[in-house]
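User: Study the chain.
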Amino acid sequence: MNGPSNVGISRTALIAIVAIVVIVVIIGAVAAWYYSTISHKPPTAPSPTTVEFLTWWGPEDPQGLAWVAGNFSKYYPGYSVEYYSVPGAGGTNAKYVILGMLEAGKPPASFQAHFAPEVLSYVEIMPHGPADFVNFTSIAAQTGLLSKGVTEAVLAGMFNGTMFALPTNIHRGGMLYFNPQVLAEYGLPIPTTVEQLANETLYLASHGMTCIWIIPGGDGGWDQLNLWEYVFLGLAGEKYGPAQAAQLMNELLYGTLNLNDPAIASLINKTDQYFLLFTQYDCPGWQTMTWSSGLAYIIQGKAAFQVNGNWITEYAYIWYHTITYPATSPYTSWTNITLMEEPFPGTQGIYVLVIDSVAVPAYENPYESAAIKLAEFWDSYIGMEIWTSSGKGVIIWSNGTDFYPTPAQWFDYEQLISTPPNQFTIAPSDGGLFDDVFSNLNTYVSSLQQVGASYIPTFNSFLVSAEQETYNEWMAAVKLGLGYMGYPGHPFANYLPPWVNPTTYHYQPYTPWWQTSS
């Protein structure tokens, strides 16, 4: 797609990020740790048939990673994979190690990335843009992914027809996790609206419960962003219905959500208020807690609610030997369940995509061929079956069967293949945003919890800046011919940003809402 000549902002975005102290700490400490591990490798370079994969999964699913590695070598004799893990929820740390390595001209052979606009953060920073990454579009066509994958999931990681990664699984974001035994103890039903969730929170507090919500602070604001975005989506779903709510979230991801619109401004303010209500009842010690450690409180009946994606299901299965069940019949009548999931109240009918993938740089990468093989294997039906059999999300293929170890996974898969196209969106906290916007938003939403109501004007003002920066990032993508998710005639979630002509799919002039007269 042809577009206006806009200066790419990838390098300037990094400079802005570095200006924020918390990111300096992340980049410095984590990158130093990562490079120290590389420097202690044996002096002999790995074989071209051995591919490194940089990931943030290591602490979550070592068994699943080992299973993938073993089967990769089995299906591709002579090839192997070495994992390098940079811990941090949602890739909060790994993303900046990857960005640093790419800008330094020393890219990893392959790395984990969200199959979503996040990928463009890496493409834009490279000296030759799209040419510096493997274009997987033709491979996806050959393997059948383009025809047999769940359509909207495939379109989420395609930019004007180009794919820079191959997906490995689909997670479902925007899920509420709870222990139904806790609700039953207090005579409370499973909440289905945001207001009901708030009322149940206040009820539990009135009965002396002090650890009601798990909203950890040890993940750098990522958990806070999860909560805020799903309160927003839930309130939008209740007011406008699932299709319009999904579009509002997609507008947020494109930088086109009109925050000057009184209805949207009211929705944002209401979201802020509910966010502060829920965070008021966060567990003591939340500041250093992480999502994975906090999950134990739910399973043990020490806390009531946690918002996250269905990686909770995997972690509970592997580390706590706990099965997650959907809040559907017959499970809602069972009395022995300690972990249950449902779409966050108000978001029923909306599918929030969080898709992991393998990206492969084509720049200064002697292991490119082996890395492509790893991506192809992991993306294949058998590769995804192997991976998701460890509890890791669901497969992207539309012809799946119920081989999952938890009922929650099959529920999420059935909903994946039955959700209408215009009711899909992507989690802002997990790939929907460009990396710099994601990082800054984590910082501001974390401050909102810590400071309280007096911080709302500052936070809402930052949302305007975040939308402006998101729009600028997309304009840089337009310049590269990558200005929307999907391909001509098939935009993701049936939504085209207003700078794309719906007939020609070329750039058309657009004035963003903050530049128009109010």
Notes: The chain is about 45% helix and 10% strand. The chain has a mean pLDDT of 91. The first strand starts at residue 50 and ends at 55.
